[in-house]
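Re: the request from the purification team.
They wanted to know what the chain is likely to look like in 3D before they choose a buffer screen. I agreed to run a prediction and write the result into the notebook, where they can find it.
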Amino acid sequence: MRLTTYCGGICDTNGYLVETPDGNFLVDAPDGVTEWLAQRGTRVDHLLLTHQHFDHVLDAAALQDAGARLHALEDYSTDLTLESLFGGAGMSVAVPPYRIDRRLTVTDDPSLDLCGLSFTLYHIPGHSPDSIVFHLPALELAFSGDTLFAGSIGRTDLPRGGQQMLVDGIRRHLLTLPPQTKLLPGHGPATTVGREQQSNPYL
């Protein structure tokens, strides 16, 4: 497995490309990632969305048009992308519409097998109602989206957000992972569970 990080768009959003012998997938689709992939000559088979705020999905439609299957907790909506919120405030945010090919479940069987890898899925709302963390236990690695950052947590002042809800979910699902587990967030540098246990002021 080979992991490469892309960072782009006005929010400096991370996208993570994972290449395996059984196919390639991308975690989140920030602005410009499609062109970056084309320059690399890399095809993406699957796109995993940690949540659908606009900065994480601006290239989702383009990737879908190029053949990627989209996986997310909920179907596309302008409420989730925040287009409705910004439009109501007189601001313009336009996300090319896409469709979710596979809605993920976090109830009876919170798991996903993809490209020869087995994920455990954690639904952690508070930043966005559809926030999901993709954990690879065998690799001690988790794509944490905008739930948990190095030294911080996702903002909770957006629709259907809540700080206590987010912190409770982080404590229940992420801080119980082995401390050496590497966390790859939606913004900023990578961190580890142990580092955030010891020093994150929000936790």
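For the purification team: The chain has one domain: 2-199.
Please add any questions underneath this entry.
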